Amino acid sequence: MKKETHKYLQQNADNPDALKKFSRRELMGAGFAGLATRVWLPSTAGLIANLLGTTSTANAATNVNWMPFITINLSGGASIHGNIVPLNASGSMLPTYDFLGLGKRPNIENYLGLNFMDKSRMLEGLKSVLSPEAASKAKGTILCTSTSPDTNAIPPLRSQFDMSAVLEKTGKKGEFFSDLQMNANLTSIRSFHDQEPTSRLNVASVAQLKDSLSLTAVYASTVSSTDATARFTQNQKRNVASVLSKMTELQLNSRDSGKLNSEKSKIIDASKKLEDLVGGTVSGQTLVDPYQSALAKNVYKLTDPTRDSASLQTTAAIMYCNLMGYSSHTYLALPGYDYHDPSTRTQSNQRDFEAGQQIGRIIELAHQLKKSVFIFINTDGSCVSIKSDDITSQWSGDTTNSLQLIFAYTPTGVDFSKNDNLRSQIGHYTNDQATDKNTLVGDRTDYVAAAVTANYLNLHGQIHRLTEVVPSTITQERSAEVVRLKAKA
Amino acid sequence: MRFYKLFLLAFVISFNFTNCSNFSEPVADQLVLGLQCEENCDSITTFKVANDQDENLDVRQAVESYLSILGMKASSLSSNNLTSINNEKKRRKALLAQDPDYTKISTINMLSQTSLAGEICRTFVTTDGLKSPLFSGVTFSQKPNQIPLNNWMNSVHNFALQAWGRSLTTEESIAFKDFLQVSMTEASRSPNSDKIVGTNSLESLNLGIMICTTVLASPEASSL
Question: Which of A239, A450, B17, B79 lies 20 to 30 Å (CA to CA) from residue A354?
């Protein structure tokens, strides 16, 4: 090793960010490690930081029972403002909605606290799957935003609506997974401030999800007939997991330094779950299988894994996993929302209906499982209609003026934190049917993500952590401007 | 200039392995973290290599380290074994921790690490591993319970020395003895207890894989 590098390392021994830039070999040369053959796994650099007594996850130990968090991306530019009626700054209806596909003055039906146009297909989809009791304990809020349309192929233009890393920053942790995704290739969003979660798994099938929770390949019970080795019994697999769990406990407890001390028990607990997953009486494969849950089968109308569509099965599985706490964050991208069909609204109506069903099923399953849930529905851009007083007027093109949506459900119910006409709306539209970009959420998508986070935190009584979790966005002082949802006392 | 050449050489080597371009065994550190010469080369700067192929570099580092510990070379492996390891890499790459924060380590990360280690250990045992000094004292033609417990324990010690850089503690020895005794009993009950692979006992090979896996996947092997 060059003397300069060695000197730099020694001088920066208390700076984990500096250490992370160096190779194992360089660190060892500087006296940070004494063995050339040790495995350099991703955890190692962080562990150095921990051993040095520094932290990287602020307040992660906060003892909060975080609600499941699900993000649905309607890829292409769904017209949520063709379903839910945005209001102006004073909380009044706009003079006309004739460019938003809602005609002159749409009739409003209040559902989940939102001002739906009474003929909204999204509303119809929600009602088709959501029981009145579940609906009575859920509330929604719209965010009036400006987002680039059709961003799937243009990553830099995507909105910063992927909040999987933000959730981890709160201290939220999935029992097995960090970020479970479906249809990630369709995505039209990007990570908030480019922060990535611990890991992501894009699930293509229930089988793949099960596979990820088992010792596949070499430890499979059955392997290729050409490979005579590695046919392990369940007891043998359990024995492997058991000794690994024991080694984790012994080896972590033998260390006494830094933040590791406060995290030992969590890591040891995680290793004990390995025993449950690999060799428990209820295997991990069973845990994530929606067909093993009568409630999930009922809500998602699952009947037979050989007949039900793969998409339905996988959607049910990832949503069920999230609600059960197996994943910190679940993300579903839905195709077909670039639907500004110049002829009729047939396709867009069908897509809106399906979006409503997707949202409704999640809330209904949460209700039946007696779990809470927070859902963030977002889209890239939206549609404008030809100027018309008819609520069936056709879409004529894309627009950046768009609504994003959040929903919250808890078994005890959700309340609005304010009581005026704008209680279910953050930001507003102007009277000329465009988003007011001067509001906190009107122009910057990272601020939109921060507003969503603010509501999520507020539901847990944690709004005081806003600037810690989503720094450089909405200040603590202005958080009240974007908070609408709170848990019912 | 010398280091610049080294970097270039490493790059060239990595793209010329037949069937194993996913590995960079001789120069892993240089390739993964990168070494670059600045101007007159009096100082070296390190940088993270651009991940152009969306590869999880952490998985790659893990695989390369495991191979290194076992004294295996990717270039010497059969295409079947390479395919097998690469398939396991693909399966696990999204599930190994990518954030360098040990406090975020989850059960699924541990499981994935164990599975990845297991696949490499299977390759090890079915290739040159049986002749390795790591298994000295173990006669694989015998069934697990025909081999003295101390001989199996000796292998555990050998693996620990190689992967952890130290001997087992008393408590670790007790835990591994329990593990071996249960494994030997279980092997005798297994439906494969009489199965022979070539001239070796299938269950003895499997116990070799299990020892290798548990040592490589232990925290002591993956952290400082």
Answer: A450
- Pick from B187, B221, B191, B217: nearest CA to B205: B187
Of residues A20, A215, A218, nearest to B100 (C-beta): A20
What number of other Cβ atoms are within 10 A of residue B149's Cβ?
Answer: 13
Count of other CB atoms within 10 angstroms of residue A107: 12
pLDDT in tens, A101-114: 999 999 999 999 99
Domain boundaries, chain A: 3-51, 69-208+285-487, 214-282
What radius of gyration do chain B's Cα atoms show? 19
Å between A156 CA and nearest CA of chain B: 17
User: By the 8 A CB rule, do A341 and A348 touch?
Assistant: yes
Helical H segments across B15-55, by residue range: 28-33
d(CA A307, CA A289): 16
Q: Kindly report the pTM of this predicted structure.
A: 0.75
Count of C-beta atoms within a 10 Å radius of residue A64: 15
In eight-state DSSP terms, residue A92 is P
CB contact under 8 A, B106 and A218: no
Cα–Cα distance, A361 to A409 (Å, whole number): 12
Centroid of chain to Cα A139: 18
Model pLDDT for residues B137-182, shown as the tens digit of each residue: 999 999 999 999 999 999 999 999 999 999 999 999 999 999 999 9
CB A100 within 8 A of CB A81: yes
- Name the amino acid, one letter, at A348: S
From the list B65, B171, B195, the residue facing A40 with the nearest CB is: B65
Nearest residue on chain A to B126, judged by CA atoms? A229
User: What distance in Å separates the CA atoms of residue A229 and residue A443, rounded to the nearest whole number?
Assistant: 60
Fold annotation for A69-208+285-487: Alkaline Phosphatase, subunit A (3.40.720)
- In whole angstroms, how far apart are CA A58 and each of A224, A280, B102? 47, 34, 14
Query: Which of B48, B106, B38 is CA-nearest to residue A329?
Result: B106
Say how many Å lie between the first and final Cα of chain B, rounded.
Answer: 33
DSSP H stretches of helix in chain B: 2-14, 28-33, 57-69, 79-92, 107-126, 149-164, 170-189, 202-216, 219-222
| Residues of B (176-205) whose Cβ lies below 8 Å from A | 176, 178-179, 182-183, 186-187, 189-192, 195, 197, 202, 205
Exposed / middle / buried, residue A416 (Cβ in 10 Å: 0-12, 13-18, 19+): middle
| Residue B223 to residue A47, Cβ atoms within 8 A | yes
Write down the ipTM of this complex. 0.78
